[in-house]
């Protein structure tokens, strides 16, 4: 690929990322704007003064005013500080800051409202992500959380954000690829109530595509081989296993025969492993009939 085409591809990729980030920021502004109008709290908790986006300043003993130059949205960015991940902390933070600047330039976000970005490394670990999320709320009084993207970390944090602050804390993530995150999130009783997923593709979507291709060829039986910890850079631990779980659930719903096998990554040649697992149960006989014209001259 030429340098010109590569540069053009990178510009297009950055442009798409910026557009997505702008959409996300707009969702946050709408959410925060209407929080006071909707009874959304999942537990009664007195509001802290820091929860207000625009902080009032005392003028006299009996009078307070809200100055429009003192409005800040504290956004906790909870991602792995490791460049091997597709959504790493430094790369995503740069994109979010660029999106904020763009929204200021086109006057969608007023200049007196600014984001205070609070980056934290969640190490793509579920328990560590919870600790960092709680620190962001109790110590920094975050209004919104971006991330995590690793599924196990996201699940742990998303279950408790509805109890953060007095009205809950919105959680924005491009992660959450498994079918559990597809469930409704409209009531406090829902597991991931405050989660807003902005990812363009989920494991359920990939599963539906796979099943659609199989149906087009009238295939109803399958065995899938996968690396349990493959594609770690996408969703963290057990990414391929979670993908297979979603695909298996979808295939069972379609009454399709489905088997899966986690390969031994230490082996270079998987032919014997495949013969053993496929066996007679998952194999069949195919006869090819073809006419041959033999010229003996």
Detailed description of the structure:
By secondary structure, the chain is of the alpha/beta class. Among the domains are: about 70-195, Response regulator (Rossmann fold, 3-Layer(aba) Sandwich), CATH 3.40.50.2300; about 205-280, Response regulator (Rossmann fold), CATH 3.40.50. The protein has helices spanning about 5-35, 90-105, 125-140, 150-160, 205-215, 230-235, 240-255, 270-280, and strands spanning about 55-60, 65-80, 115-120, 145, 170-175, 195, 220-225, 255-260. The strands form two sheets. Strands 1, 2, 3, 4, 5 and 6 form a six-stranded mixed β-sheet that branches. Strands 7-8 form a two-stranded parallel ribbon. It is elongated and about 75 Å long. About 25% of the residues are buried. Strand 4, helix 4 (about 150-160) and strand 5 form a beta-alpha-beta unit. Pfam families: ANF_receptor.
Please provide a brief summary of the model:
It is found in: Membrane. With 297 residues, this protein is an alpha/beta fold.
Give the mean pLDDT: 79
Q: Spell out the CATH superfamily of the domain at 68-197.
A: Response regulator
Largest sheet: 6 strands, mixed
Which geometry do the CA atoms define?
Answer: elongated
As a percent range, the share of helical residues equals 25-40%
Tally of helical segments? 8
Strand content: 15-25%
Structural class: alpha/beta
The CATH level-2 architecture of the domain at 68-197 is identified as 3-Layer(aba) Sandwich
Low-confidence stretches: 1-10, 59-63
SSE string, helices as H and strands as E:
HEEHEHEHEEHEHHEH
CATH class annotation of the domain at 68-197: Alpha Beta
The third-level CATH topology of the domain at 68-197 is Rossmann fold
Strands, total number: 8
Rg is 25 Å
State the distance separating the first and last CA atoms: 51 Å
């Amino acid at each position: 690929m030429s340098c010109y085409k590569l540069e053009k591809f990178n510009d297009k990729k950055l442009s798409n990322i910026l557009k997505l980030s702008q959409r996300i920021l707009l969702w946050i502004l709408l959410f925060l704007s209407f929080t006071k109008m909707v009874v959304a709290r999942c537990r009664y908790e007195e509001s802290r003064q820091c929860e207000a986006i625009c902080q009032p300043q005392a003028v006299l003993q009996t009078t307070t005013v809200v100055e429009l130059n003192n409005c800040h949205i504290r956004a906790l960015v909870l991602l792995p500080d490791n460049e091997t991940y597709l959504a790493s902390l430094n790369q995503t933070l740069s994109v979010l800051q660029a999106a904020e600047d763009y929204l200021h330039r086109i006057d969608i976000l007023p200049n007196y409202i600014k984001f205070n970005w609070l980056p934290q490394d969640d190490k793509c670990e579920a328990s560590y992500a919870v600790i960092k999320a709680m620190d962001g709320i109790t110590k920094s009084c975050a209004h919104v959380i971006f991330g995590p993207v690793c599924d196990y970390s996201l699940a742990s944090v998303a279950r408790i954000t509805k109890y953060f602050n007095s009205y809950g804390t919105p959680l924005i993530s491009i992660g959450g690829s498994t079918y559990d995150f597809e469930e409704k999130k409209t009531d406090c009783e829902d597991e991931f109530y405050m989660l807003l997923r902005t990812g363009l593709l989920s494991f359920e979507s990939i599963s539906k595509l796979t099943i659609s291709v199989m149906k087009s060829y009238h295939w109803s039986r399958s065995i899938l081989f996968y690396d349990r910890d493959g594609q770690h850079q996408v969703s963290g631990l057990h990414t391929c296993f979670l993908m297979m779980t979603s695909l298996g659930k979808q295939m069972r719903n379609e009454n399709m025969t489905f088997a899966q096998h986690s390969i031994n990554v230490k082996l270079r040649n998987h032919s014997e492993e495949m013969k053993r697992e496929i066996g007679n149960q998952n194999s069949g006989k195919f006869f090819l009939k073809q006419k041959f014209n033999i010229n003996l001259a």
